[in-house]
Amino acid sequence: MENLSNPTVIKNLLQRHGFTFSKALGQNFLINPSVCPRIAELGGARPGCGVLEIGLGIGVLTAELCKRADKVVGIEIDKRLLPILEETLSEFSNLKIINEDVMKADLKRILFEEFQGMEIAVCANLPYYITSPILMNLLEQRLPIRSITVMVQKEAAQRICAQPGSREAGAVSIAVRYYSEPKILFHVSHGSFLPPPDVDSCVIRLDIHKNPPVALADEKCFFKVVRGAFSQRRKTLSNCLSSYLNLPKAEINALLEQAGVSSGSRAEQLSLQQFADIANTLNQNC
Ligand code: SAM
Description:
Oligomer: single chain
Number of strands: 9
Largest sheet: 7 strands, mixed
Bound molecules: S-adenosylmethionine
Order of helices and strands: HEHEHEHEHEHEHHEEEHHHH
Distance between the termini: 57 Å
Shape: elongated
Structural class: alpha/beta
Strand order of the largest sheet: 4-3-2-5-6-9-7
């Protein structure tokens, strides 16, 4: 197999296939040879395990996953990459490539059909234009996966992994914590990619909770409260919720008091349990 981390090899390969990078599809391919083995190891690619990869590029991470896991299924939107992947990954018989948009693919069916009886992990160097929608799509569907290990922009990593109650926390951090335990694994500089993006990156892992960390009467109401609470960063919880839920401020303040949360506090000061308490109190009026 050719060295898929070598920029000269990559440029020759791409030139032979007449391939040009698409910025719109977030095509920054990894060329730092130490990164993909680390993602594969820390992402749990191992015997007995199946891995779903999103966005294969020329297959540099895919090869490391195929070497370690029983089976790899890769979803790649760009059909121009298919003949390239056929060439670079020809030695692996435990790989299936699906040419689809991951946001439109029927992931539940794919996982059920392809990985019966296996533990499943998701690993990817995600296209940065669509990081949060992909993560939320994977989490909200409650797919039967053990973990999600992905490369994302450094700022996105900090937001996703922020502790509730900290200044960096946002709606995504709270949602991610409801479904999983997120962790920053390691940093990757922008020079590790071809072409290099403007920003640095981090590899993060979300270990999926077996049971939700808080009890909710209505999940939809919880996420509505979280979105509402963070809808206007500079405003108090009371103001945000009153305008987002279209309820009089006095009513919101009474609900907050009942939930034991100060009406003057701000969303980034609240714990997961406090969001749950507000949602459970609000339930009927949500
Ligand atoms: N895994 C390769 C690597 O590390 O070098 C490529 C990573 S590159 C950052 C992102 C890849 O995701 C590209 O191959 C791009 O074509 C693909 N992609 C972009 N949007 C996608 C989508 N909606 N569904 C599936 N793949 C997508």
